[in-house]
Amino acid sequence: MYPFSLYLPTRIFGGENCIDNLPAAINSYGKNILVVYGGGSVKKSGLLDRVRNLLKDRMITEFSGITPNPKISKVREGVKLCRDNKIDVILSLGGTSVLDCSKHIAAAVGYEGDPWDLVKDPSKIGNCLPIFAVMTMSATGSEYDGVGVTSNEETHEKLMIASDKLFPVASFLDPTYTYTVSDYQTASGAADIISHVFEQYFVLDGNPLTDGFAESMLRTVFQSTPVALKDHENYEARYNLMLASAFGCGGLLAIARAPSPWPCHAIEHELSAWYDITHGAGLAIIIPHWMRYSLNEKTAVKFAQYGYRVWNIQNSGDVNADANKAIEATADFFRKIGIPASLKELDSRITDEHFEKMADHISKAWWDLKLSFAPIDRDGIVTIL
Length: 385
Ligand code: NZQ
Ligand code: ZN
Known about the structure:
The chain has 385 residues and is α/β, with parallel strands linked by helices.
């Protein structure tokens, strides 16, 4: 069992109409609010109007057009807007792309240099503006972590900005705001949640408590996703997904476990950086290949444990065979929820042209994948891709 430190300062409000708590929660943080949103889903759903109404006694500046895989150019634009309007607080309405862009802006407002510097050197992060988040998708866990992910269009890099100062002050999880999420984004979000659990669960040295948290989260997502896809307005299923999303990345699943370098995320971020693909869909394609690559005599027991406890696979006495069944059950799940089966099918532009460059970049800019569940070297990254 490993030592650990856990810091989770965000207040989470959950349930229908929990957004009614927003005015009181934001109250002491200032009058001038930057309301950030994406391509318009929050206008269609009525969320933006509701927020305007709830905050009618404040000065609101709107900043829209944040795209999936948010770009550093948009962060720069947001920083200028904050300075010009003397913004006190940032309120993110939408999925994580909006929230991560908000986090990066919050960190960069007080920094004189270029916002991309803060990705490369987090010690440059000083005071950050307070962030509030109303979530409309279940996927990344950004609502309960201190991480943002930003893409640099010029350098083909997609990297994290991370600091304890970037936890939202409060996040609002109303499942009804996720009713309008498309099937594709619902499935991709589920795959992302699953991957966050896998990245922490599949280590050689875990512990029973967090194994249990992880297995419970996995069962919840495997059961709730098909329900939410069939019946978009199923409150229970949507709520389950929101909860599983929130607890995926903040560190709870990693306490006292061996550290993991999150190999599937390393590889997916390279693909998004080059091809702007949907994060969760990319992960769902990578995961089964990573699992098959990682199966060996040391790791088979854990893959089999996952199969017994999450998929109710019967113990056949052959650990390797049971591990394989668990891996194929996972691949089958992703196919059934409608994720394309290969990178080529996901995006016809993807060939092996940049795979070597991606592997080199991971070696330079990410944690060491040789410390993964099964060690992955440069050639291993290319093999998985
Ligand atoms: O822009 P709008 O119109 O809002 O549409 C969005 C967007 O097109 C749409 N959407 C969101 N809520 C909706 C909705 N459409 C209809 N109804 C709703 N209620 O969904 C599309 C995708 O949104 P996005 O925010 O990009 O999705 P997601 O929340 O999955 O975020 C993905 C980003 O988060 C990063 C990913 O790499 C990617 O950049 N991640 C962030 C992490 C973190 N901060 O901790 C960790 C993750 O591992 C991940 O890397
Ligand atoms: Zn993720």
